[in-house]
What does this fold into?
Amino acid sequence: MSARASIASNSTAAAAIAVVAIVAGAVGSLLIQSNLLMTLMTQAVISAILATGVGFLIRQNGAVSFGHAAFYGLACYSIALSPKLGLTSPEAAIVLALLLPPALAFLLGLVIVRIPGVAFSMLTLAVGQAFYEFAMKARHATGGEDGLAVNLPSTIFGVATNWFQRPQSMFVICWIVLVVTVFGLSVLVRQPFGRLTAAIRENEERARFIGYETVFPRALVFALSAFVVAVAGVLFTLYNTFVSPDVLHWTLSGSALIMAIIGGPKLIWGPALGAIILFFAKDIAGNVTEHWQGIIGLILIVVTVMLPIGIGGALARFGWGWRWRSKADA
Amino acid sequence: MLVQLLNGLVYGGLLYIVSVGLVLIFGLRRIVNFAHGSLFMIGAYVGFSVAALGGFWGALVVAVIVLALVGAALDIIVLRPLQREDPIVTVLVTFGILLVLEDFAQTIWGKDFLSMPVPSVFAGSISIFGESFPLYRLVVIAVAALVAAGLSIWLRVSRIGLYVRASSVDPMTTAMQGVNTDRVSLLVVSLGTALAGLSGTVSAPLLALSPSMGSYILIESFIVVVVGGLGSFSGAFLAAIAIGQVHNLGLVYVPWGATMIPFLLMVAVLIWRPTGVAGSHT
It folds into this structure.
């Protein structure tokens, strides 16, 4: 099979999996009667989109960000503050919330993607926290730490707004967005752009020597990961209709990062899996102990050291090992 | 005005003690300790508890010893086994330690803010050119100055100091010259965490103690280290003093934007010199 045909068949297979996943999610949600469970699952899926954005940056740029809450929170505040800035149409506010974070990330990326490894992590942490400090201080606009309520009209994009607030319907919407995001990113990484950024991640110097420009593609990946995170922020705001500086705090960036690491950032779907596992683990642990933070710290240490491929990577290796092996033999 | 400059020096001095610990550890192990702020926090709490029993001096000594032991354990259990891994692995592991330590502090000392009284020996204010200034704050400046002087003499004069400087330029070559970098590292990491403990205890009477107090100082000291240049002792000193002044003058003259100024300064420095003012490692 030629490489091109193989890419096409892989994409068809991925599309088929995506359709099945969407249908399964929608049907599954109909079977669940518990409102509490649906609420939890909706939040889990929004976190999964957030983690997917953070994980994509690790996968594609090899860069670990401690500051993606900045882009998530910026999307939230874009919707919340639009009416105050004279942007009365909520549809326009949502478009702004989706475009502003990646645009900013791109500009920022041109400066900071050159900075390697650990220093990049330190910088993203500091830059992310600057947004938090700003939201806390700009009290007249953001309401400071009290946060502010988001007023939405009765329909958005022709959809009744309460669809975004009822867990049953919102879960399906978020699930579709998650599946489409994961599908879109898995197609993208097989394109020349995906190959190029992977090459830069592996050896930036050589990619440069072959004649590729290496800052621009990495800034694009950074912007794309910010876009995915902004999508999660928009969904969160529509669902919650309330925004406070917590959405910008570095602990949010940190927990998204932990989800991505535990799920397995080498896989596009790994971070989402990590998010869902951690969300339910947190809920169960919350009933038993108050030491969730310590537990998650220990889990992070253990997974980082003993299982760098993450839970998703382990599943892929052991569960589907036979498939990979048979391919390798062929 | 003089009072403002002194206040900036207090904050800059504390930042220096925390940041130079980060620089020491980075020099030997080429990693950034994300748990450093939590060690500062633990230092403050240990100081708080011991001060209630054994007075301020006792608190200072105990906090420094406890944190030095924690640093030794950190080096032996975490940093040494991970030294061949990608530095980002150590970042994630120390981030995990940060979460565990915050949970630990919350369990022992609770979530509520605690405040430690200024030690009675240094209570009250003195008059400097007609303006009154709290005596304890002068003590903080003196401690920071002693640390800076002590460290720079130690690094220049002693044999270990020579190893540390060599290692922070190139750990591999230094090891090849026959220096036991593991042993030097054990000492240096302990020293770095002991300094975090020292600054925690010294700043406890000036701050509200809470389990999350460490992350604020961690982020500020990251800014110092990045602006000064990762791995540079003099860079950290200059950057800490500058950021202390900028932060404090900002609080007085542009209160709404004060917390943003260090960040803006950092971004400006990075655009101007991506490796920091005095650095070559970033």
